[in-house]
């Protein structure tokens, strides 16, 4: 039967609508000598008012920092905002580790994701019981930035490229995190990162252009549902600038607060408050910048680690200078206190439904079982030419090869896995004593010879400094792993540890895996005369230096150029590809496990340059496939990878995210058919890096990003996921062919399992608007339903779409509009596998011709080329920042009044530019212009006018404003 797509919104918003409703009848009254804020029988607002009135100004300021101190005179304990809980509790020790968020997105199962959130919240309460001051209950999760580009370094942290799926997953996960009580919170989730964040390169200096349609149709639908449902208790501001203004100062935070009647707590990202002055240069001093952030809506400041004195000092300076007042402090502290009250901090434990959770819940058997279920559910079968499921008969020989065959990796926001089931482990356990599993990493083992001997590693468990000496055997053996873009890691066979930069800038073999904020275990080989040089490629200030050998033979990162580097002769001790081929040649099947290491080439602070498999991994795949035609490729990765060769040549391809402690068991259960592959891609998989547009263009409609706008042929489309059975879709039935703007259309689709196995299918409903005043997506997901269908049976999937959701942001009037139009509703198994379609008519409005006789905001264009959106003032407003040759277009403009004057409100540092008015095309008929003189600065606007010649009549003219130089245009009119 169908599994519901959306968890029902909770009652919290209604409960707190007036913030005047008390806790349930029967709540224990406060003791007679307790202040009113301790009385759970009083309305929340009264309790906050009472506590707020008791706080001194200095105490209020102290609560603005991430580490809020105790206030003993009021009995207030320390409180810390911000614990990481992206796919399980992170950074606090061993905890249940679930699949990466992108893997959870691949489940398309909100019920499952809510249960994962519930377990994560429960374990968070368990950690909080251990150390309440250090393990805070405000969790910074989930990440709801839509995954518009697979090269984004933090792709693993998000759910999908489609906002509807993002919103559903976020609503489900935060629903589990916050718990099922109408008032009390299990944890207080904060959504990351608001807004327009999707690039790591200079992320604290980059301004992204997000036009009104992109904001309202792509960004807001990702963030809004979880807040509107009452599940998320706030957002985290992002590092970037949005439309020229730091996200920590954006007035868009006011929109976020309007989505909920409850108080929301807005937190800064780590060290971001200082960036407003130091890297963004937006204000000259920190007192001014912090005052502006407080007024914009930032409540909690994450800066300088546990040292709150810097933040406190900046706010004290702002108070002393009169930049903020008590009312500004009260507004933010109220938001903070609201969350603390709802976490139950000030109430008797017997009133708080989560206060009895103890640390023994962490990594419980039930949680391990859910981790396995989640890992299994996200396994996504991309291709299958009959190779899967594998035969698990007696005396079965399987080769499991590749750099990820017998290991599991954690990512930056992962918890510590309490145990690890690797792919090889899972397959061996599944086969039992009757089968045989051969394992090969498929990586070359090399030795590096230099003057004086070989690079030699310590055999001690704790490792030591690498030296050039007379080492033999494993002491001089290095295993090389290729992670793409020329980056490799080196593991010493002497002790199995990875080589990295250590004390004294020397190389040590002392790490289990690449790790840390500054990943220091990365290298590149460069060909030089006489051999190779080794370049350090870690993510820190040393990453342009080379390896040299000092007078004592120690390897160090100390050469400034390749000319000064040590030259090594690279000797191949054993070929990884040959070893893997030997393991695979006589096996009944070969499972090749390739992909990424989450700390390398695609993580926070580092975007990918390429989406293809690393060269050595591609060569390994080709060699094994040639040796054994019964080869299965398992791509274990944090993001989509381009594997067109595999699609053409490998019998079966399956994708999994880094799925946590149960990865191997889950993988084996799918490979051997004990479980159906259930995952469906939450992102488009492209054929090559060359298929991707400019990563810096955030506006997906403009750039052609995502399935909504991509006109090429995807390698694997959004929503794709195969099964071991087959499904036939019957003709859809709709309850109406015409629908009003406030109506709903229900689509019922019979789904028949035509195979001989029970299976699950994700039925997807897309729409396409057939006629419109403006450009529309090629298609857009509107609903989905996961249905379980027995072999030979039929189940009816029911999908709905609200006519309002078929609307779009009307830039002519700055509002959401449902247009009178025909729409095609399409039912299918993916964005490119549409089985049936029906047409409906939406009885919306006819959007009038654009009227530009009054002042028109320049940022409300329909189309554009070259321009950026910038800040009109430091506080509010967007303006068009243009250079010579850029243009903006206003479609469907009414020129019937025969305007004779063009007025432009513009700013320019220097004069000499003009804004031309053209009709029909950027190089179409020029009917006038306004010369723009120097105004003194980018925030200094003046009105400039110019005469218009005879303009074409009619109400459907495309008017272009073309710029001949650097201008900021705020608004204009044709009068």
From TrEMBL:
Family (UniProt): Belongs to the glycosyl hydrolase 3 family.
InterPro entries: Actin-crosslinking, BXL, CBM6, Cellulose-bd_IV, Fn3-like, Galactose-bd-like_sf, GH, Glyco_hydro_3_C
Protein name according to UniProt: Glycoside hydrolase family 3 C-terminal domain-containing protein
Stretches assigned to the CBM6 domain: 852-975
SUPFAM superfamilies: (Trans)glycosidases (SSF51445), Actin-crosslinking proteins (SSF50405), Beta-D-glucan exohydrolase, C-terminal domain (SSF52279), Galactose-binding domain-like (SSF49785)
MF terms (GO), sorted A to Z: hydrolase activity
CDD domains listed in its UniProt record: beta-trefoil_FSCN_BglX-like, CBM6_xylanase-like
Domain of life: Bacteria
Signal sequence residues: 1-27
Hydrolase found in the keyword field: yes
UniProt KW keywords: Hydrolase, Signal
């Amino acid at each position: 039967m169908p599994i519901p797509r959306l968890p029902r919104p909770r009652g919290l918003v209604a409960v707190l609508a007036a913030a005047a409703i008390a806790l349930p009848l029967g709540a224990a009254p406060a003791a007679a000598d307790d202040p009113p804020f301790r009385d759970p029988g009083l309305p929340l607002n009264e309790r906050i008012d009472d506590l707020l009135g008791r706080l001194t100004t200095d105490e209020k300021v102290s609560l603005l920092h991430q580490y809020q101190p105790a206030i003993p005179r009021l009995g207030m304990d320390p409180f810390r905002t911000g614990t990481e809980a992206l796919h399980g509790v992170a950074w606090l020790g061993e905890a249940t580790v679930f699949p990466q968020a992108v893997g959870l997105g691949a489940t398309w199962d909100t019920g499952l994701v809510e249960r994962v959130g519930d377990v994560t919240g429960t374990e968070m309460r368990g950690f909080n019981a251990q150390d309440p001051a250090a393990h805070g209950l405000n969790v910074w999760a989930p990440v709801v930035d839509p995954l518009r580009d697979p090269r984004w370094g933090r792709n693993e942290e998000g759910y999908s490229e489609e906002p509807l799926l993002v919103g559903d997953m976020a609503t489900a996960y935060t629903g589990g995190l916050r718990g099922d009580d109408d008032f009390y919170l299990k944890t207080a989730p904060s959504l990351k990162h608001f807004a327009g964040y999707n690039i790591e390169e200079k992320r604290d200096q980059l301004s992204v252009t997000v036009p009104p349609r992109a904001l309202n149709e792509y960004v807001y639908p990702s963030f809004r549902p979880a807040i509107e449902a009452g599940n998320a208790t706030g957002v985290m501001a992002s590092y970037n600038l949005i439309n020229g203004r730091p996200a920590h100062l954006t007035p868009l935070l006011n929109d976020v607060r309007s989505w909920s009647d409850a108080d929301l707590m807005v937190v800064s990202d780590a060290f971001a408050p200082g960036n407003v002055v130091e890297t963004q240069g937006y204000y000259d001093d920190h007192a001014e910048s912090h005052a502006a952030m407080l007024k914009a809506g930032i409540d909690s400041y994450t800066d300088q680690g546990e040292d709150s004195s810097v933040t406190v000092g900046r706010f004290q300076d702002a108070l002393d200078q009169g930049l903020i007042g008590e009312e500004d402090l009260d507004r933010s502290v109220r938001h903070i206190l609201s969350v603390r009250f709802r976490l139950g901090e000030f109430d008797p434990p017997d009133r708080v439904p989560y206060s009895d959770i103890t640390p023994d819940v962490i990594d419980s058997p039930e949680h391990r079982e859910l981790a396995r279920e989640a890992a299994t559910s996200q396994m996504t079968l991309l291709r299958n030419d009959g190779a899967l499921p594998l035969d698990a008969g007696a005396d079965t020989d399987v080769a499991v090869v590749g750099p990820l065959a017998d290991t599991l990796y954690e990512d930056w926001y992962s918890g510590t896995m309490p145990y690890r089931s690797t792919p090889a482990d899972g397959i061996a356990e599944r086969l039992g004593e009757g089968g045989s599993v051969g394992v090969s990493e498929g990586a070359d083992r090399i030795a590096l010879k230099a003057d004086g001997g070989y690079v030699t590693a310590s055999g001690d468990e704790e490792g030591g400094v690498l030296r050039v000496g007379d080492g033999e055997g494993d002491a001089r053996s290095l295993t090389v792993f290729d992670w793409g873009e020329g980056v490799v890691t080196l593991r010493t066979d002497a002790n199995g540890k990875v080589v990295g930069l250590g004390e004294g800038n020397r190389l040590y073999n002392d790490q289990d895996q690449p790790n840390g904020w500054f990943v220091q275990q990365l290298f590149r080989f460069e060909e030089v005369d006489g051999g190779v040089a080794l370049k350090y490629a870690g993510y820190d200030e040393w990453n342009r230096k080379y390896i040299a050998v000092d007078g004592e033979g120690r390897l160090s990162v100390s050469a400034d150029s390749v000319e000064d580097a040590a030259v090594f002769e690279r000797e191949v001790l054993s070929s990884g590809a040959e070893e893997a081929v030997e393991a695979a040649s006589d096996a009944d099947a070969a499972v090749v496990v390739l992909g990424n290491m989450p700390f390398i080439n695609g993580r926070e602070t580092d975007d990918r340059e390429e989406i293809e498999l690393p060269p050595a991994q591609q060569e390994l795949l080709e060699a094994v496939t040639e040796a054994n035609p019964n080869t299965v490729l398992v791509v274990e990765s944090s993001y989509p990878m381009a594997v067109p060769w595999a699609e053409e040549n490998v019998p079966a391809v399956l994708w999994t995210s880094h799925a946590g402690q149960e990865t191997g068991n889950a993988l084996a259960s799918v490979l051997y058919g004990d479980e159906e592959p259930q995952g469906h891609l939450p992102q488009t998989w492209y054929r090559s890096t060359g298929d991707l547009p400019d990563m810096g263009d955030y506006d997906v409609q403009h750039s052609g990003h995502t399935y909504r706008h991509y006109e090429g042929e995807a390698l694997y489309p959004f929503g794709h996921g195969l099964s071991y059975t087959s499904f036939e879709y019957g003709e859809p039935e709709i309850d109406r062919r015409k629908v009003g703007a406030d109506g709903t259309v229900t689509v019922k689709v019979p789904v028949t399992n035509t195979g001989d196995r029970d299976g699950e299918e994700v039925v997807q409903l897309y729409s396409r608007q057939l006629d419109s005043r403006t450009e529309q997506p090629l298609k857009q997901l509107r609903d989905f339903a996961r249905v379980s269908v027995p072999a030979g049976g039929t189940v009816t999937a029911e999908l709905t779409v609200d006519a309002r959701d078929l609307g779009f942001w009307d830039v002519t009037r700055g509002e959401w509009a449902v247009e009178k139009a025909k729409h095609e509703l399409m039912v299918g198994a993916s964005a490119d596998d549409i089985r049936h379609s029906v047409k409906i008519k939406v009885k919306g409005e006819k959007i009038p011709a654009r009227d530009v006789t009054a002042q028109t905001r320049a940022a409300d264009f329909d189309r554009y080329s070259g321009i950026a959106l910038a800040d009109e003032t430091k506080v509010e407003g967007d303006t068009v920042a243009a250079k010579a040759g850029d243009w903006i277009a206003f479609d469907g403009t009414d020129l019937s009044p025969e305007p004779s004057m063009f007025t432009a409100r513009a700013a320019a540092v220097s004069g000499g530019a003009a804004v031309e008015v053209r009709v029909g095309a950027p190089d179409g008929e020029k009917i006038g212009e306004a010369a723009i003189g120097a105004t003194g600065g980018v925030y200094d606007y003046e009105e400039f006018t110019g005469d218009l010649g005879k303009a074409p009549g009619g109400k459907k003219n495309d008017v272009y404003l073309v710029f001949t130089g650097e201008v900021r245009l705020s608004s204009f009119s044709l009068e």
